[in-house]
Structure formats: C-alpha cells, structure tokens
Amino acid sequence: MRDKSDDTQNAPVFVLQKHHARTLHYDFRLEKDGVLKSWAVPKGLPEKKGEKRLAIETEDHELDFAAFEGTIPEGDYGAGTVEIVDTGFYELEAWTDAKITVRLKGDIISGKFVLIRTRKPDENSWLIMKL
Predict the structure, then answer these.
(1) Which end of the chain is more exposed for a tag (fewer CB within 10 A), N or C?
(2) Count of domains in the chain?
(3) For the chain, what is the radius of gyration of the CA atoms?
C-alpha cells in the first residue's frame, strides 16, 4: 500500500471496511501511533457536505488489519464477512480528545471529514461529518 507515490510514503493510512457481523455496518479506521484507531459507522461515511452519521469508537486494531478481507469465524469477536470498500492515505489537520479532522485520499473516498465526540471523553459516541 505504500507504493502509490513518493508524497504518500510516510502518510498514515485509512480504510473503510463493510462488515457483515450481527448487523451490517462499516468500520472506519485511521492509522495513529502504530495502530488503527477504529469506529463502527452503522450507515457508512457521509457522502454529502454537512451530512452527519453516528460513529461508535471501538478497540484499536493492528496495522495489518487495514488489508484484511475475509471471514472472521463464528465465536470470534466481530464474526462475519469483512470487505474493503476503500483504502488510502490521509492528511491530519487536528486530533484532540473531542475532535479529529482529516483529509482522506482514497480511490473512492476523498475529501475533508471531521469526527466530533458527542459525550464525555470516557464514552465512545462520535458524529462523523463531511466538510
């Protein structure tokens, strides 16, 4: 994945995966500090400027999970089918406990997005919006 062009060699990756688990949802992941920070987004990323979607923060994943497509076996956490919708790189504009602003550069998904925490820092509800 690091072979797209010289200007992205050190850029952090993002991935959006369609996840057929107990319920169909999308997993949005951003590389940070050696892991993939992750959110379950029930309706997928917003496509229109100003549109808001719920994003539930989940546990961090290992970086190699950005390339995972396949089936997680029954009985394992996240059991079900995972397929990559898009992957690419992102430019970080801001990352705080309350707000994350990134510019995604994928083959399908591109543009500026913001994640805004909707609750206290120890809770996991966020909104994601396309800017």
Answers:
(1) N
(2) 1
(3) 14
Print the domain residue range for 32: 6-130
- What is the pTM (predicted TM-score) of this model? 0.88
The CA–CA distances, whole Å, from 97 to 7, 74, 100, 128 equal 28, 34, 8, 14
Token pair for 59? 């546990």
Q: Which residue has the tokens 């719920």?
A: 54
What are the tens digits of pLDDT across the range 56-69? 999 999 999 999 99
Does residue 1 fall inside a structural domain?
A: no
126 domain-assigned: yes
How far is 95 from 75, CA to CA, in rounded Å?
35
For 56, the 3-state DSSP assignment is strand
What torsion, rounded to 10 degrees, do the Cα atoms 37, 42, 47, 48 define? -110
